[in-house]
Structures are given as structure tokens and as C-alpha cells.
Specification:
Layout lengths: L1 H19 L3 H11 L3 H5 L5 H10 L3 H28 L6 H50 L4 H10 L4 H16 L3 H11 L3 H15 L4 H57 L1
Helix pairs in contact: 1-5, 2-5, 4-6, 5-6, 6-7, 6-8, 6-11, 7-8, 8-9, 9-10, 10-11
């Protein structure tokens, strides 16, 4: 009886939070501000990689904490509701399972927001590198036409659309307003978003300019190197996908063999 009441309370809390989550921005900001002290316990600020993921996804740490807590409550409450339905239907589960299932559901709800952010950040990094490669090609074309370095960079950034080009335009605007090198700001952008390729390219081109080397030649070489890396990653992803596609076929073949062979094995064993 006590277990049923506890599950009922968790269900009520979970349903309430699900309804409130329809206005998620307001809930997460207020709940995240209230629970800001828990960031240190979860070591979000200490994890530089997670910080980069949050930056590139444009999500603050307070929202992540709130999402994790909501996931725990919904996971525990939802699993408790399902267990209550099973018990009502006459299912007889052990006390260990009644505790283990809600705990596992709560842990899954706690980990899912971070997993989702990591997947989104990976997609955004791939998209940013693709856009940056196009940005370098456009800059190289403008430099070949006789434009200055800063003019070519700004014109190339303004010719593209999407989130990636918006970030490039933003850092170039900062470089203009602070009269700093655009390559330094691009390097900082790569550091913020955990994109070592961007940081490496910006640093090498800046070094080439400072030593009087031809920026256009260095830019073309770096753009080609970035495209080669992207092609290698695409080929690796395609090979991995091909291998994953073969696994269901193997399982289907094994299941077919078992289905055909089981009656024969049963008859042989029965005959003995």
C-alpha cells in the first residue's frame, strides 16, 4: 500500500512537470537558477568538453541541470505508473524489480539530456566544418581577384547563410571593432566550440601572414587539407553504417537456421 502511494505521488509530480514543460523555457530558466549551486556537484563547469557542447548548442548549464532533474522525475514516475498498472493487472514482480526498474529509469532520464546535447553538438560541429571549408574557398577566390585579406574574409562570410556563417560573421565583426586580427578571433571561436581544425588553420595562416608568406597559398592548402579530413570522416561513417547494416542480416540468418534446425534436433533427441 505504501509503495502504491509513493508511486502515485511520483506519478502526480511527473505529470505536473510534463504539463509545465510545455512552457519549457520559463520552467528551465527559473528551475535552473534556483538549482545553480548543483552545477558544481555535477561538475558541469569543470568539464570543458561539455562546456563546448553547451556553447555550440546555445544551451546554458542551468537548463541542462533542470532537464536532468525533470528527466529523473519523469523516468521514476513513469516507470512507477507502469509497475502500478502491472500489479493491478495481476503481475507478480519481486520487490527487487520494483526498486530496480524505477532506479534504472531515473538514471536514464538523468543521462538522456546530456546524451542528446552531445549528439546535437557532433552534428553542429560537422556542419560548421563543412561551412568553414566553403568559407575558406570563397575567401581564396576573392583573394585571387585582388581583394584585401579583411575585405575577402568579410565578403566571404556575408555570402553564406545559416548558423555557421552567422558565427563567422560575428567573430569578424568583433575583430573589426577591437582592431584585432581576424585569425585570432577565428582561433578563439575554434577553441570555444572545441574545433581544433579551425584553431590550427587560423593559427597557421596568421603565422604565414606575419612572416610575409603568401596567405592565399597557405589558405588553399589548409582548405584542401580540411576537405580531405571531411572526406575521410564521411568514408569512415559510411563503412561503419555498412557494417551495421550487415548485422541484422546475420541475425536473421541465424534465426532462420535455428527455426529450421530446432525441430530436427528435437526429433533426434527424442528418438534417442
Amino acid at each position: 500500500m505504501i509503495l502504491a502511494v509513493a508511486f502515485g505521488v511520483l506519478i502526480a509530480v511527473g505529470i505536473t512537470l510534463c504539463i509545465v514543460s510545455s512552457v519549457a523555457d520559463r520552467v528551465r530558466s527559473s528551475l535552473g537558477a534556483f538549482l545553480h549551486a548543483s552545477l558544481n556537484l555535477m561538475r558541469v563547469n569543470a568539464n570543458s568538453r561539455l562546456n563546448s557542447d553547451l556553447h555550440i548548442c546555445n544551451i546554458n548549464a542551468s537548463s541542462l541541470v533542470a532537464s536532468k532533474l525533470i528527466g529523473v522525475v519523469v523516468g521514476v514516475g513513469g516507470s512507477g505508473f507502469c509497475l502500478l498498472l502491472l500489479q493491478t493487472a495481476g503481475a507478480n514482480l519481486s520487490s527487487g524489480m520494483n526498486v530496480l526498474i524505477p532506479v534504472m529509469a531515473g538514471v536514464s532520464g538523468f543521462m538522456y539530456p546530456e546524451y542528446k546535447i552531445r549528439q546535437l553538438s557532433k552534428a553542429r560541429r560537422r556542419s560548421f566544418l563543412h561551412s568553414f571549408s566553403s568559407f575558406l574557398d570563397l575567401t581564396n577566390i576573392l583573394l585571387a581577384g585582388g581583394a584585401g585579406t579583411e575585405t575577402a574574409l568579410i565578403a566571404a562570410a556575408e555570402s553564406g547563410d545559416g548558423w555557421s556563417f552567422e558565427q563567422i560573421r560575428r567573430v569578424l565583426t568583433i575583430a573589426q571593432s577591437t582592431r584585432s586580427s581576424p585569425w585570432i578571433e577565428l582561433s578563439r571561436l575554434g577553441d570555444t566550440y572545441a574545433l581544433p581544425q579551425i584553431k590550427e588553420i587560423a593559427g597557421s595562416i596568421q603565422l604565414a601572414g606575419e612572416h610575409g608568406a603568401r596567405i592565399r597559398t597557405s589558405l588553399a592548402a589548409r582548405a584542401e587539407s580540411l576537405r580531405y579530413r571531411q572526406m575521410s570522416e564521411v568514408e569512415s561513417s559510411a563503412n561503419a553504417a555498412t557494417e551495421r547494416m550487415g548485422l541484422p542480416m546475420v541475425l536473421l540468418f541465424v534465426s532462420f537456421i535455428v527455426l529450421i534446425g530446432y525441430p530436427a534436433v528435437t526429433l533426434v533427441i527424442g528418438g534417442l
